[in-house]
Design brief:
The structure holds two protein chains of two kinds. By secondary structure, chain A is α+β, with helices and mostly antiparallel strands. Chain A contains three helices and ten strands, in the order ββαββββαβαβββ. Chains A and B meet through β2, β3, β4, β6 and α2 of A and β14 of B. Bound molecules: zinc ion (ZN).
């Protein structure tokens, strides 16, 4: 299964096993399961346009979780602060992820509104922001452009069958 | 894809493993050995009322070609050539001359074996292999223009005991003069990477390792430097270069005819006697070599495709051994002056 996506810059985005398994294990593949989400953490690789998402946060007390709704609380901030402090400022916030109870997910108008807000937020540092939605059958990844406040779908990974590299 | 971080880890690894031409230990060991040889010959020949043969020495092997690596297990390997001022007509059997060397060097903590192309002297320290010296025995032609190397073992048939034409100085000159400047430096790095792969891999499997000179000559034939331009400066891409060389070696395994139809990698010595440097490997050893080269190629390809330089270096450590340096993740990322402060996110 290839989890290396090509960016508009020509650089590449890798999602590591650790990050991937945490997200995919919360996918809404039964009717009972509620939306889940969190934020993306990782590195912008030096001397390149490449990025690695190597961890994600998962729901904490204080988040709002329903079948069709997830509100990530500000309590996730501590993950960002901790990662930044422990890595000499190199492990940083790289975006948001959440689940959808649909096969191949697409962003709701609420999602797009929230993403755009993030893209123009001056308290979010760094050039790169990504948005991941974990559906039931596939995961899709969007790259955000901070100045244009727009997003672009850069990849879709099917969750069924054993694709090989 | 080229990674400047992986490249700098490879360069750091090379600095760690390279055996300096001026290495003090090797120089001392070699000089001690040559003194012992001289004393031993004098002792043995005088005892028989004969004049000991005089000899000169020839630096050879990786030491002279500046392609040596320090051993991961601590057992140094020293190559030296000894040129006896004798005539082939007086001593048609080189094994006789090789036995002079063996007898002259016999001593405590020393194991000496006459091998086909050299006499190997192994020293033991506290019960462990300490270092060994491969002594190649030469004699010159009567006009001094040609050199011959003594081939054969004690149990070899007469037809396998020969003075074979050789050009040890010519080979050193060719390897040392191959490519210029930065390309020559990359040529040496790639040879050293191959040797550390060889040491790591064949130590694990216990199969016979390809000889270092074979890897060096293969690189001489097929090395093609690969560079990348990063922000208008040219950088050498050692990973891609090594991968291309390994690919070339694999592509050259063939069913060529050499007395027998045999599937082998043939690497011709570029100087006299122009023989195949891997000729002494059995077909089984050849098969093992091919399998290991395929594994190496696959690992180099995976490392090259890795986005995360830390993961790429972890793969390279499996290829080159524990000495390969893996960077801390925090040294591979761009730094932010402050952590982002995020608003609530709705979805
Ligand atoms: Zn949504």
């Amino acid at each position: 299964m290839s989890r290396i996506l090509t960016l508009s810059s020509g650089g590449r985005l890798k999602i590591t096993d650790t990050a991937w398994v945490k997200m995919v294990s919360l996918r809404q593949d039964t009717l009972r399961k509620k939306e889940a989400g969190g934020l993306l953490l990782g590195r912008q690789i030096l001397e390149s346009d490449d990025l690695v998402i190597d961890d994600v946060s998962t729901p904490v007390r204080g988040d709002t979780r329903a079948r069709m709704r997830f509100v990530r609380s500000k309590r996730h901030q501590r993950f960002v602060d901790e990662a930044w402090a422990k890595s000499n400022g190199t492990r940083v916030y790289l975006g948001e992820w959440h689940t959808h109870p649909e096969g191949v997910p697409s962003p709701s108008s609420e999602d797009l509104r929230s993403w755009r807000k993030h893209l123009s937020d001056k308290q979010i540092h760094g050039e790169a922001l990504f948005f991941v939605i974990v559906g039931v059958d596939a995961v899709r990844v969007w790259e955000g452009f901070r100045f244009q406040r727009s997003v672009n779908l850069i990849g879709e990974v099917c969750l069924h069958g054993q694709e090989s590299d | 894809m080229y990674s400047p971080i992986v490249q700098s880890q490879l360069m750091a690894f090379h600095n760690l493993i390279r055996l300096d031409e001026e290495n003090q230990i090797l120089r001392e060991k070699r000089d001690q050995l040559l003194e012992r040889l001289q004393r031993g010959l004098r002792r043995d020949f005088m005892a028989k009322g004969k004049v000991p043969p005089s000899f000169s020495t020839l630096n050879q092997g990786s030491y002279a070609m500046n392609t040596g690596i320090t051993p991961a297990d601590g057992e140094f390997d020293i190559d030296v050539g000894v040129v006896f001022e004798i005539s082939r007509r007086d001593f048609p059997d080189p094994v006789v001359v090789k036995a002079w060397v063996r007898d002259a060097l016999a001593g405590p903590n020393t194991k000496i074996t006459i091998r086909n192309s050299c006499v190997t002297v192994s020293y033991v320290k506290n019960g462990n292999p300490y270092y060994h010296v491969d002594i190649a025995v030469f004699c010159p032609s009567s006009n001094g223009e040609q050199m011959y190397i003594g081939k054969g073992r004690e149990n070899s048939l007469e037809k396998s005991r020969n003075w074979e034409p050789a050009d040890p100085k010519g080979l050193i000159k060719l390897i040392n003069g191959h490519r210029k400047g930065d390309e020559a430096a990359q040529f040496r790095r790639v040879i050293r990477y191959l040797k550390s792969w060889r040491d790591e891999t064949f130590k694990k499997t216990g199969n016979a390792a390809p000889v270092g000179i074979g890897l060096t000559v293969a690189a001489y034939h097929w090395f093609q430097p690969q560079t990348r331009t990063v922000e208008k400066t040219q950088q050498f891409d050692d990973l891609a270069t090594l991968r291309a060389l390994v690919k070339q070696m694999l592509d050259r395994f063939s069913d060529g005819f050499l007395g027998l139809w045999e599937y082998r990698l043939r690497v011709a010595l570029p100087v006299a006697p122009k023989t195949d440097v891997f000729a002494r490997m059995s077909l089984k050893q050849m098969k093992d070599l091919e399998t290991e080269l395929k594994t190496l190629l696959a690992s180099l390809s995976r490392a090259g495709a890795e986005v995360d330089p830390v993961a790429a270096c972890e793969i390279l450590r499996t290829v080159f051994g524990q000495r390969f340096p893996i960077p801390k993740p925090s040294t591979t990322g761009k730094r932010l002056a402050a952590p982002s402060v995020m608003p609530t996110s709705y979805s």
